Amino acid sequence: MTGVAEQSVSAKVRDFLAGTKLLYIDGRFVDAASGRTFVTYDPATGEHLADVAHGEAADIDRAVRAARRAFDEGPWASMKPNERERLIWRVGDLLTERAADFGQLEALDNGKSAAIASAVDTAWAADVFRYYAGWATKIEGSTVNVSMPFAPGGQFHAYTLREPVGVCGLIVPWNFPLLMASWKLAPALAAGNTVILKPAEQTPLTALMLAEIFEEAGFPPGVVNVVPGFGDAGAALSAHEDVDKIAFTGSTEVGKKIVDAARGNLKKVTLELGGKSPNIVFADADFDAAVQGSLNAWLFNHGQCCVAGTRLYVENTIFERFTQAVAEAASKVKIGPGLDPTTELGPLVSQEQLDRVTGYLRDGLADGARALTGGRRWGETGYFVEPTVLVDVKPEFSVVREEIFGPVVAAMPFDADDGIVTAANSSIYGLAAGIWTRDISKAHCTARLLKAGSVWINQYNGFDTAMPFGGYKQSGWGRELGGAAIDLYTQTKAVNVAL
Ligand code: NAP
Ligand code: MG
């Protein structure tokens, strides 16, 4: 940590960062089996932030054995739903109490604004734990009125049980480290599973602080295990024969590797993958609201959002005025480190992401795109990129087709008479979409035609814990949040009794 960063964090965060951060396995903080550690960096400066025990296959195996024992032998499996409910609710309360610490730690490790990491990421994570705490007591099977045509005259009592899947591996990315972990942990635990969480190598810290909360809340050993490491640790978890399910959020490329790795024991897999989401602005939209909303669509979290609305389609009659307004708003965004309370746009998470995003910018500009604003790295320290609005783009450009995961939008005009849906749907992805119009009928008709798991009308990033979230096409398998997640962390047993 630099001197400035050190002054702006709480004593709790300073203490947390001192000393090597250990793996959390079977209710204890332990070194990696190899004794190795890795470094996590502050993306605002590129400087060393903390040393973290380096989890590898042997540590994943230890954690899986602990989770298996906790699942098979208890006390977790035999606990009453209302006992699980109380424990999970307590995690939500402790997160709320420590929201400022979590916000600062996330800001240091990921680069995002501490204020947002506290008020959005942590507050929402707490909400997710409370929402799923309530689900623990509401997971039900049903009775089935069977006909049993081959047993005429018999009497039967048939019903279903919803049971946990078992040992779940949860693999999360670096863009919303605490929040993505919470989206998986809370429903998995509410349904009675035991888990191994593998955070991203770039951002392992809030997951480890969360492990302290699970410990404090009183979860039995082995129910929650946290093993930071690299891709090989995720691969070991995905291939492990004693893991019953993998829930993954990250790139489509790694999602496909997970599907391959899961073949061995045909473990269940849910995937929340990449996107290249269309955001469609019709000429009759509320202009100012659409400008602000469109900016939020591609710039929130520095563009490091799977749902980022990075293909901005604007009806041709307002295209020029609208894109100028978006570019002007983007050029005024205050860039800086996440711990500075005036910062609106922080750094990208790593040198790798900086290289990737500036590489896309170079390719796009070489292809013939024009930057209305931005187009470059910002400053010489840290991994900052200027908010960039690209116009004069063609559908075949990589900046239009591929997920950039940085503060870059490609804007394209459309003619209302030609329809916009074909262009909007012309992507391998189908995660989210935005629509801006005052015409109710047009809004709903367009929403029906879009191939996307979430459609937001006259807003963007309109998430809620109770709303299912996930992808069409190559954006994923299954849904997170809402009751949908409970379905995917449980399996159904059919019981039929001859009376
Ligand atoms: P990623 O490689 O997909 O990382 C996601 C998680 O998977 C991390 O915990 C990662 O560990 C782990 N992992 C890596 N290789 C694995 C393997 N073979 N088996 C199992 N787990 C594995 O994403 P990234 O490399 O950090 O980012 C690359 C691009 O992915 C981004 O530029 C962006 O386009 C996309 N992305 C999408 C999302 C999303 O929310 N949809 C989130 C992040 C990134 P390590 O961190 O240790 O590699
Ligand atoms: Mg990675």
From TrEMBL:
It is an enzyme of class 1 (oxidoreductase). GO terms for molecular function: phenylacetaldehyde dehydrogenase (NAD+) activity. Residues 29-495 form the Aldehyde dehydrogenase domain. InterPro entries: Ald_DH/histidinol_DH (IPR016161), Ald_DH_C (IPR016163), Ald_DH_CS_CYS (IPR016160), Ald_DH_CS_GLU (IPR029510), Ald_DH_N (IPR016162), Aldehyde_DH_dom (IPR015590). Its EC number is 1.2.1.39. The active site is at residue 272. It holds the Pfam family Aldedh. Keywords: NAD, Oxidoreductase. Belongs to the aldehyde dehydrogenase family. This is Aldehyde dehydrogenase. The gene is feaB.
